[in-house]
Amino acid sequence: MRELIKYSLSETQIEAYARDGIVYPIEALSTHKAQKYRTEFETFEREVGRPLRYVAMMHLYFRWVFELTVEPGILDAVESILGPELLVQSTLVLCKHPKDESFVTWHQDFNYANETSSETVSAWIALSPSNRESGCMRAIP
Question: Collapsing DSSP states into helix, strand and coil, what is residue 53?
Answer without folding.
Answer: coil
